Amino acid sequence: MTAHNNLINGSWTPGKTTSPNTNPSDLSDVIGQYAQGDASDVDAAVAAATAAFPAWSVSGIQARHDALDKIGNEILARKEELGDLLAREEGKTRPEAIGEVARAGQIFKFFAGECLRLAGESLPSVRPGIGVEITREPVGVVGLITPWNFPIAIPAWKIAPALAFGNCVVIKPADLVPGSAWALADIIHRSGIPAGVFNLVMGRGRIIGDALVQHPDVAAISFTGSVGVGRGIAEACVKSGKKVQLEMGGKNPQVVLDDADLAQAVELSAQSCFYSTGQRCTASSRLIVTDKIYPAFVQALQERMAKIKVGDARAAGTDIGPVVSQAQLEQDLSYVEIAKAEGAVLATGGSRIACHTGSGKEGFFMQPALLVDSTPQMRINREEVFGPVASVIRVQDYEEALAVANDTAFGLSAGIATTSLKYATHFKRHAQAGMVMVNLPTAGVDYHVPFGGRKGSSYGPREQGRYAQEFYTTVKTAYTLA
Q1: Predicted pLDDT at 482
Q2: How far is the C-alpha of 359 from the C-alpha of 361, rounded, in Å?
Q3: Cβ distance 101 to 87 under 8 Å?
Q4: Could you tell me which residues are beta bridge partners of residue 458?
Q5: Catalytic residue at 89?
Q6: Superfamily for 252-438?
Q7: 168, 237, 273, 281: the active-site residue
Q8: Which residue among 48, 199, 447, 481 has the highest number of C-beta atoms inside a 10 angstrom radius?
Q9: How far is CA 453 from CA 162, 268, 284, 450, 463, in A?
Q10: What are phi and psi of 247, to 5 degrees?
């Protein structure tokens, strides 16, 4: 089986070892062998990026635009092929995987345009005869550490702005899903970007990630992943003076009021909680439902869940693919048992199952779980599960629903289902979250607008859209005597 190597200074470089990339829908299917680097590979990649930075940081904006646009065009042209790879290695359904690949292509094309829209300010000084210019410059070598749940979109939304604004990149993708990141690196490698500007180092987080965070020549770290790892990265970056950007998950509430359209509320809740196997940081795992609609909502959601087909991610008719790994499956199942032990009632699902599509292949398949009669202080409502597990909390009215929604250490996304303009308007202002959805699933955001949260969900500047420049550039103020 051909080994997929790291990309360092424009050359495909073997790692010290390799690791298999296994299909979670079919554990007998090994997608490929991928390099496992070490700290010396990080040193080589950072050295290459450092050497390339002086020229790339002042390169022409047309050349940068053309390279990013070419990358975006190839991604879009190959979206079905790359989507099949993504579904095979991560486990989200093939249609959703193709959509994620398309989003990655759109992100690169958006930031190709941003290369041509770099702007500053020209202001008069309070002192006569002096002019002031405010401009943005790249920060330097940026280390990117990306998660397994969006193996091409999240690398894209970090890489594209980094390159657009003149930075050089060293990326460490998630060890569980290196295939999509490697395919993206291959496209970038052939785009015409100079050697050293973009580098890929695969391997374990505690080895490659730590080496990136600790490296003195890395100016900034952008990380998406767990709270514990993120906090450690933040502490290390503050000590060394690195710029840092963190996205660390959520415990997102979906409020359903008495006046909601029941069918709409059930569908958006099912989409938020269970699709993508619940493996989205914007997924809703707390359903906060007011008293009068509670019985009808729970019954209707159970009926909707009964129609969900769990199966091979690439098979036609599959609604939800497998959980990504054995460890994640065990975590999901353990939280169901914890919730039951604390007094919640398992209404449906919550166990490991065989593939619904009848492939006969062994995979990490789990029946989506719905827990009812839970209370806000239960662990199931405090801690991120990151799987197809949702709990329902019964409340009396909107005021209690809002209080429960905000009673969390996280603040990424929050949703409300209501036909009341009054409550929708109030919730948009008072929900303590970076993103608010009215009569829409909590998961699902556009690529051209800012992404991020509050409290324990995010730290540092927002990702995506024009707001990405806040992290990937530094501001310079220059004075000139006329």
Answers
A1: 82
A2: 5
A3: no
A4: 247
A5: no
A6: Aldehyde Dehydrogenase; Chain A, domain 2 (3.40.309.10)
A7: 281
A8: 199
A9: 21, 21, 14, 10, 10
A10: -120, 120
pTM given for the model = 0.96
Domain limits, CATH 3.40.309.10, in the chain: 252-438
Pairing of β 413-417 and β 435-438: parallel
User: Tens digit of pLDDT for each residue in 376-421?
Assistant: 999 999 999 999 999 999 999 999 999 999 999 999 999 999 999 9
Can you tell me which residue has the tokens 């690169």? 108
**Residues in the chain, total:** 482
Catalytic one among 100, 247, 384, 463? 247
Q: Is 281 one of the annotated active-site residues of the chain?
A: yes
pLDDT band at 356 (very low <50, low <70, confident <90, very high): low
Q: Does domain 3-248+457-481 have CATH number 3.40.50.970?
A: no
